[in-house]
Design a protein that fits this description.
By secondary structure, this protein is mainly β. The chain contains 2 helices and 9 strands; from the N terminus they run αββββαβββββ. Strands 1, 2, 3, 4, 5, 6, 7, 8 and 9 form a 9-stranded antiparallel sheet that branches. A hairpin with a 6-residue loop joins β5 and β6. The two termini are 27 Å apart.
């Protein structure tokens, strides 16, 4: 996660250094002055993510250590402007993610470690609330809900953790909250953003053994994630 934040800061500094004179000057040249007056427009995004699990337990005991690994995001953006400061956004995307789960009480790494890889296709419907544009800068808040398909869920596998197979449900529902800033350049609008993703529902598929040391004490396991997206319109 620290690497993602540092990268975000470096890109922001580089952007400001490269375009600062025209974008952040006291009296900047106004770029794409009528861009936000469009009723419908399109774009794409690239970015990074860090996915985690929020784990709730049935009884106090040995917690599972969940470590999220940096992943990659790519997707498309469709925008419908509802009024001057409000947009409806559909941002289907592909997310590559992985988490490392470490269980306590095992002597063998084969039993203690589970690397949970995921390939998500996300279908978010978001509302963007923009502030008043100042020169070539416009901050915003964004939030909404999404439905996500995990292509690597192992949900149809008959094997479970006793055969080193960790299983989760293929479909999940989440909500997203975040903030960002629109930067208007001569030929495009660049919109970096940071968002949090919070799962609504329990994703875990339990092992066949109700007393399984891997799933038996888990009340719920829900996605948590931080997304850093760089959107171009």
């Amino acid at each position: 996660m620290k690497k993602i934040s540092i990268l975000f800061i470096l890109i922001s500094i580089s952007t400001q250094a490269q375009f600062g004179r025209s974008t952040f000057a006291k009296d900047p040249i106004i770029n794409l002055e009528n861009f936000d007056k469009q009723r419908v427009y399109w774009g794409y995004f690239l970015g990074f993510s860090n996915f985690d699990f929020k784990v709730d337990y049935k009884t106090p005991g040995q917690d599972i250590n969940v470590v999220g690994n940096t992943g990659f995001n790519v997707g498309l953006v469709g925008v419908l402007r509802l009024q001057e400061y409000v947009e409806l956004r559909f941002e289907p995307g592909l997310y590559y993610a992985s988490r490392t789960l470490t269980y306590q009480g095992f002597t063998s790494d084969v039993d203690a470690l589970r690397e949970v890889k995921a390939t998500y296709i996300d279908f978010p419907l978001l509302v963007k609330f923009s502030a008043l544009r100042t020169g070539n800068v416009r901050p915003y808040l964004v939030g909404g809900v999404s439905t996500t398909l995990n292509l690597s869920s192992n949900s149809k596998s008959k094997d479970d953790n006793s055969e080193q197979r960790f299983r989760v449900k293929p479909w999940t529902q989440n909500y997203q909250l975040g903030f960002g800033i629109d930067l208007y350049f001569e030929y495009f609008k660049f919109s970096p953003s940071i968002r949090g993703v919070f799962g609504f529902n329990d994703e875990l598929i339990r092992d066949d053994d109700p007393n399984s040391p891997w799933t038996g004490n888990i009340e719920s396991m829900k996605t948590r994630a931080v997304l850093i997206n760089f959107t171009f319109h």
